[in-house]
Amino acid sequence: MSKGRFRLCIFCVIFQMCFVKSILSSYADGKTDTTESGVVITQIQGSVRDPNGASVAGVQIYYKIVNGEERAWGSKIHTTDKYGKYSFFVLSNSEYEINAGGIISTSAVSRRFTAEPNEVYQVEDLIVRPANNSCKGRVLFENGQPAANLSYGYVSKSFSSYNTSSQFKTNNRGEFVIEHILPDELFSFWIFPKENTLCVWRRLNPNSRNLEFTLKTSEYIELPVDWFMGYTHEAIAKDMTFAKDSRIRFCLPDLYGDTISLEDEQFKNKAVLVNICGSWCGGCRLELPYLVNFKNKYNKEGLEIIGIAFERGTKEEQLQAVKKLAQEFRVNYPLLIGGVEEGEKMGTIINGLELFQGYPTTVYIGRDGLVKHIQTGFWLWPEAHKQWQIKQMEDHIKSLLDITVN
């Protein structure tokens, strides 16, 4: 899409949103006569429930106006009542999606539908998991002083607390309160000790009551200047994958049927990157050229890379997809066939890898065979994040190879 067309689409969406807000506000106040104005509206109603069928009150409801593949948020946020129900009006003859979520539950999205004129549209029940656990704690600096008035947040695999309308800060004693967290998922807690700097504590028990953390400068993570646009901080905090006993093990076939493992002679006393990917994965395809470049650049220093691809379809279709991937990107390191793309079974294929989060995942292994770092995800927007992410990867590689990191 050209920039001019993009700007026109944005203008049209904003105009439509403003028009919807004006008309529907008037209608809600009883000021609009649809017959005289020519405006045709549709009533939307539905319910939000938990997986056991119980109603969930206080869940925020948004609607999205759908135009082809483009979506624009509606201008008003609604909330489910004590029975878990919601009801509001939209302009007819447009396509919509209903989103349920907010800071007290996981999210759910309805099927896309067209609002027919002068009708009541009943949305299917939206199923969410209530974040009904809470805990509290305190953060201190290394010198024992309270980390006062600092922004913080928390996230688990299925639930995020962070958005533009929910800014949390520690009090003067460095204390914090987590009011809503899922009771059955480990979570991460983060804090911003200074501008564009993050500190994270991962894999925390949601049933904890009194947490205490110490900010250590050695554990600070410098963020790109546009971290908020890309939600870089949340991606870092959400990455809870780890290696049990600091090791991973696998024995898988390459494109020629030969089995390869980390125990093979070619990987002994080498720094190794194990990249878990798939030909269907957009982030994996974006990351591949950089891995190829790193292999060329640091091969003589002792860097090895192994790709493990998880694919879709039959075994033959998987093999052909990985062969095509290798040819397309001129991959200069072994690509192994991991099997069918099923993230929940990752630990049975790559032994020792726990809490796998998604694709791509890159495991950084030192010359001693121990896992030093694990990175999940790869994206190239915004530009500052792209440069930050590539530098992070190269710095980790240099650290494995005992090359001075600038």
Question: Your description of this structure?
Answer:
- The chain is an alpha+beta fold.
- It has eight helices and 27 strands.
- It has helices spanning 3-28, 34-37, 227-230, 232-238, 282-298, 315-328, 346-349, 383-400; strands spanning 41-49, 60-67, 70-73, 78-79, 85-91, 95-101, 108-109, 113-114, 120-122, 126-127, 133-141, 151-156, 168-169, 175-181, 187-194, 197-204, 210-215, 221-222, 242-243, 251-253, 259-261, 271-277, 303-311, 335-340, 353-354, 361-365, 371-376.
- Mean pLDDT is 88; it is low at 1-17 and 23-36.
Helix-and-strand structural type = alpha+beta
Number of strands: 27
Q: How much beta, percentage-wise?
A: 25-35%
Number of domains: 3
Inertia-based shape = globular
Largest sheet: 6 strands, antiparallel
Distance between termini? 39 Å
| Mean pLDDT across all amino acids | 88
Give me the CATH superfamily of the largest domain. Answer: Glutaredoxin
Give the low-pLDDT segments.
1-17, 23-36
Q: Which fold does the CATH topology of the largest domain refer to?
A: Glutaredoxin
What's the CATH class label of the largest domain? Alpha Beta
Count of DSSP H/I helices:
8
